[in-house]
Amino acid sequence: MHEISFDYDDALIKKAARVGVKKHLPRLLAIFLISASTSLVLAFYGEELLRSPLIPDVLTSLLLGAFIGMAILSAILPLVLYFASLSQGKKMLKKFSTPEVRIYLGQDEFRFKSSISDSTVQWKAFQKLYPNDEVYLLFLDSARYFILPSEQLSDDLLTFLMERLEENDVKICRSLFSI
């Protein structure tokens, strides 16, 4: 059984929030590029493209507004996600009587122990791991994850972790585009 111990503090929460936002960037960038380019096409060529007695000019304006709105939303969404994640992490931190967290990595299970929780999870319950230079995020689903500080993970522990995850078909997202 492997064990790591660390403090759940503001610095760790900020690292996890940054990494959490990075995982959404490829999709948001794609949405931004599609909606911004469509907006430009509609702005400059909308009348010619949509000239038809069946399509009024109002519809062209509505489409243009919708695509501009999508472009703006996809541009500001990373900030919204970051601050929402930060806020959620700080709410959790307030519940802790002491910031110390212990994580035990066993052959069959992962155990998280803190002043507010003592939970055991089977390896097969995890969906994906998002490794990063600052933190590793180990996801149970799209919203719930465990934070593992990178500096706490020795080479032996990383090897053990990766073996457990691979044995249980947990997706390991090694780049932003594999998420």
Structure, briefly:
The protein is of the alpha+beta class. The protein has helices at 10-22, 25-49, 57-95, 155-167, and strands at residues 2-7, 100-105, 109-113, 118-122, 128-130, 135-139, 145-149, 171-172.
Description:
With 179 residues, the protein is an alpha+beta fold. Helix content is 50%, strand content 21%. It is built from 4 helices and 8 strands, in the order E-H-H-H-E-E-E-E-E-E-H-E. The protein has helices spanning 10-22, 25-49, 57-95, 155-167, and strands at residues 2-7, 100-105, 109-113, 118-122, 128-130, 135-139, 145-149, 171-172. A 4-stranded antiparallel beta sheet has the order 1-2-3-4. The chain has a 4-stranded mixed beta sheet with strand order 7-6-5-8, sandwiched between helices. Helix 2 (25-49) runs antiparallel to helix 3. The longest helix is centred in the middle third of the chain and has 39 residues, at 57-95. The radius of gyration is 22 Å and the shape is elongated.
Major sheet characteristics: 4 strands, antiparallel
- Distinct helical segment count: 4
| Beta strand % | 15-25%
Please, what is the average pLDDT?
A: 84
CATH topology of the largest domain: PH-domain like
User: Helix amount, in percent?
Assistant: 40-55%
Radius of gyration: 22 Å
Give the second-level CATH assignment, the architecture of the largest domain.
Answer: Roll
Number-wise, the strands total: 8
Number of spatially distinct domains = 2
Main β-sheet, spatial strand arrangement: 1-2-3-4
N- and C-termini, Cα separation: 29 Å
Class of secondary structure makeup: alpha+beta
Query: Any low-confidence stretches, pLDDT <50, length ≥5?
Result: none
The sequence of SSEs as H and E is: EHHHEEEEEEHE
CATH class term of the largest domain: Mainly Beta
